[in-house]
Structure prediction request, 318 residues.
Amino acid sequence: MRRTTSMQILSRRSIVVTRSIQEMQDYQNSFDPSWKKSSKGGIGFVPTMGALHAGHISLINEAKKQHTNVVVSIFVNPTQFGKEEDLDKYPRTFDKDLSMLKEAGVECVFAPQVQDMYGVEEPLCHVEPRAFSDILEGKARPDFFRGVATVVTKLFNIVQPTAAYFGQKDIAQCVLMQRMVRDLNIPVKIHVCETMREVDGLAMSSRNVYLKQSERKAAHVLYKGLSEALRLCERSTEGISREKVIEIIENVLLCEPLVEEIEYISVASTDSMRELGLVRAREEGAIISSAIRLGSVRLIDNVLVGRARYKILSTPAT
Ligand code: AMP
Prediction:
């Protein structure tokens, strides 16, 4: 049950486009309160920065299995970009995104302006994930996790979803979201969906458009290295040391001359991305992740070893 107010409704498969916080809240308030408790009730929410691809659509499909109403946000969040990063040139393809979302059967898009999200005054409060600035991805991108935790908290407060869907591709973000809702008692279930890949294994990403042809051909090397480490760890009964894991991945990456830099290789726990000395697939498992540079393009990817896979990807309890 929904009223429509002034929001723009596009025909064919209809989709509500909300361009401001007020419009999104009108959409949210138009539901009967009892609807949240009904089967497939409550909003399934997929936060994105747009430039959509099949990876994003896989999150939407997962959300649609559990919710009739799926809301997707498209917001290139400035506070998660570093000074040297690609905020200005980040791909923005709103019209194409909208057709993809209509095709995917999404009910509503929330695409706010930066000023609407952050106001004109410098904010006094933000969400600071303690210790995440010390993990390897956090050291590489200072302020990134604060930006993500803060914007997702704001989006949760605006959209008020029952569940939110994130991609394993950004694994540290997933661990952070699972911890954040627990630590701050946020009533949103976090689902983590497996990484969608191109046929050669490269993880799909909006930033893959930056790769030159030769770099695109070489880019699968990251997943190749991670997969070799995964195979070895899953075969071992006693466990594999972190040094060995790093050596295996480095050996694969260093065979590819276009790899300009190995930014990090991380062997981490599922609870807080704390670095581990030993990977025991049959006990706690591990998250093995890496960031490399191919020319000017930064690629990240990860694999989940043993029980880590079950822990991260299993459906949260109701
Ligand atoms: P982004 O638009 O890059 O902020 O991503 C929005 C969501 O899509 C995040 O939860 C990402 O982890 C997820 N995502 C990005 N790439 C993929 C992929 N290849 N497979 C699955 N999910 C993805």
In short: The two ends are 24 Å apart (CA to CA). The chain has eleven helices and twelve strands. The mean pLDDT is 93.
